[in-house]
Amino acid sequence: MAREFAIHSANQNRLPAFTPAGRAGASFKPQHFDAIAADPTSVGFVEVHAENYMGAGGPPHAALTEIRNMLPVSLHGVCMSIGGMNPLDPEHLARFAGLVERYEPFRVSEHLAWSTHDDVFFNDLLPLPYTDETLARVCEHIDQVQEAIGGPILLENPSTYVLFFESVWKETDFLREIVKRTGCGLLLDINNVFVSATNHGFSATGYLADFPLEHVGEIHLAGHDEQEDDEGAPLLIDSHDRPVADPVWSLYETVIKACGPIDTLVEWDSEVPDWPVLRSEAIAAERILDRYRGHQQNVKRHALHS
User: Fold this and answer.
1) What is the DSSP letter of 46?
2) Half-sphere exposure of 71 toward its Cβ, with a 13 Å CA cutoff?
3) Is 170 in contact with 211 (CB distance < 8 Å)?
4) pTM of the full predicted structure?
């Protein structure tokens, strides 16, 4: 079963200790503050992107401080460049660790991706070749992050649009080995699985059957954009700008049926709707979680085919 990856800081007695325990949450957007504050029980938890709160203060921190006193908060990094060729940026890592100390999130996560090279920052989460060299570098960077924050992180599987001839590892085995070497957990983004499977022509169900589900501490769901490549083949973009697609909901229920309730976040980062729309997506996830709450679960691979 999924382990709980709580972060313990020196200030743990100062803030309320929240754990969502198999609930559905939503991305926190400032325009939703009043609606959430009026009814904090309307959602299980919220998640914020760390990089939006790396300033010293101001309205973003004021709002997050109030939200943190109402609800569990998960901290999701998007710019650490864990897979990058360069060493981790020490200033960025220090600010990231400062946020963990300040807000005591119940969970911290980052991406299996890179976004920096030398002094250039790319506003994207770029894919990696799955080689022994990449594996060693990713594990070294994860160790540095976990040492800085004083606890384990969850690592998110990517959405990809290209594959590398150099790769010698399957993505699922690559993630499994990272967990073994670093002690981190995994964040399973099911929309990313569906996007990558469609783009590269493999089975999303088969991928999930081989995924190390026993190490999953959180699930992400999101919407994607449907396009075509230059040859007219389907091309999906992980856009986070619309409701979760029906095939992704189906894959999600398959995983929850096998594993039992796992904290699940609905991401919506562009074309953000009014709170009732985003909340309705979280409610849909909550209904699936409730359907399998208390059932005897099995995370073995064959369970995903039942």
Assistant:
1) E
2) 27
3) no
4) 0.90
Amino acid, single-letter form, for residue 19: T
Q: What are phi and psi of 98, to 5 degrees?
A: -65, -35
C-beta of residue 270 within 8 angstroms of C-beta of residue 27 = no
| Chain centroid to CA 188 | 7
CA 227 to CA 108: how far, in whole Å?
A: 32
Kindly state the tokens that stand for 94: 């220090």
Residue 181's H or E segment, with its range, is helix 171-182
Of the candidates 227, 293, 266, 202, the residue with the CA atom closest to the CA atom of residue 28: 266
pLDDT 10s digits, 225-271:
877 676 767 777 778 889 999 999 999 999 999 999 999 999 999 89
How many CB atoms are located within 10 Å of the residue 26 CB? 25
Secondary structure (DSSP) of 101-138: HHH--SEEEEES-EEEETTEEEEEEE-----HHHHHHH
User: If DSSP codes are grouped into helix, strand and coil, which group holds residue 256?
Assistant: helix
